[in-house]
Amino acid sequence: MKANQFKQVVISLAAISAVAITVPTIAEGFYIGAGVSQAFIDERGFDEDDTGSKLFGGYQLNDYLAIEGAYYDFGDINDGSSSTEIDGLSAAIVGKLPVSNHIALFGKVGGHEWDADVTGAASGQISSDSDSDAFYGLGVEYNISQSISLRAEVERYEVEDLDVDVATVGLSFNF
């Protein structure tokens, strides 16, 4: 019985070692991050901004190209008569231009699936709308270390017939 248990322990340790060696290789190129954003709308009676958030992740295909997905929340935009909350999911292709060992410029273009909830100030009635539209953005990334980067970006999201400009500062963790 003891020989059988020893054999199981050895096999288990071998399997764990194989996974420990393989996981960094599989995860290489992936990144995740979070940011704080400021969303601005200045059209159709809106001249408002609010603080929001963003969670993102992606895969760096090579030094110049990545794919990225994100969840965003633009906060609560209020025009005096109604309050609008917009959140959604996005997917983009990101082009990067390394300018030094620590700094890269990037541009992105993609699509997003948004959901908008509008609440009337006087009536309290809620209406909801959702759709998908395009978005694009520009940014700069500073590599603090091999595994941590500071990002600043500006994006424009089309939300039906509104343009929502969003400035975000965040950290990404690179694997």
What's the short story on this structure?
By secondary structure, this protein is mainly beta.
Describe how the helices and strands are arranged.
Elements: H1 2-27, E1 30-43, E2 46-60, E3 65-78, E4 82-98, E5 103-120, E6 126-143, E7 148-159, E8 162-174
Antiparallel strand pairs: 1-2, 1-8, 2-3, 3-4, 4-5, 5-6, 6-7, 7-8
Query: Given the C-alpha coordinates, what overall shape results?
Result: globular
Number of domains: 1
CATH structural fold name:
Porin
Strand order, main sheet: write it out: 1-2-3-4-5-6-7-8
Residue windows where pLDDT falls under 50 for at least 5 positions: none
Helix content: 10-25%
| Overall average pLDDT | 84
In the CATH hierarchy, what is the architecture at level 2? Beta Barrel
Distance from N terminus to C terminus (CA atoms, Å) equals: 42 Å
Number of strands: 8
Fold and architecture overview:
By secondary structure, this protein is mainly beta. The chain has one domain (29-174): Porin. Helices cover 15% and strands 69% of the residues. The protein is built from 1 helix and 8 strands. Strands 1-2-3-4-5-6-7-8 form an 8-stranded antiparallel beta barrel. Strand 7 (148-159) and strand 8 form a beta hairpin. The longest helix is centred in the first third of the chain and has 26 residues, at 2-27. It starts with a helix and ends with a strand. The model has no long low-confidence stretch (mean pLDDT 84).
